[in-house]
Amino acid sequence: MDDDSVFRALGDPTRRKLLDLLCETNGQTLGELCANLDMARQSATQHLGILEDANLVSTVRRGREKLHFINPVPLHEVYERWVRKFERQRLSLLHDLKRELEGDRS
User: Fold this and answer.
1) How far apart are CA 21 and CA 33, in angstroms?
2) What is the spatial distance between Cα 4 and Cα 23, in angstroms, rounded to a whole number?
């Protein structure tokens, strides 16, 4: 996985909006996605291309239509590598605080 391309793709609010739209309804066409964006189809296509390059979106042709699907695997990998380890420490601190506040010394 290329973390840099995933973080670059996620760094733009329009691309995050596209991912949110696909999360709500997976398998949308460009036209369906553009109906929820205030931009030209060509601009949306460029954003989708960056998401595809980061492997966050995949496409499937259905006749003349091109359906876009979210790929959660790179997001999960980012979570595992960058978020989970910090979450573990935070939860451990909360657990220790709870034990202290409740007077549990075991």
Assistant:
1) 7
2) 22
Q: Are residues 59 and 43 in the same domain?
A: yes
pLDDT of 103 = 82
**Residue 106 lies in domain:** 72-106
Domain count, the chain: 2
C-alpha to C-alpha distance for 53 and 5, rounded to whole angstroms: 7
**Whole-structure pTM value:** 0.79
Asked whether residue 33 falls in the same domain as residue 57, the answer is yes
65 and 78 part of one domain: no
19 and 51 in contact (C-beta within 8 Å)?
Answer: yes
| pLDDT tens by residue, 35-79 | 999 999 999 999 999 999 999 999 999 999 999 999 999 999 988
| Rounded distance between C-alpha atoms, residue 9 and residue 4, angstroms | 8
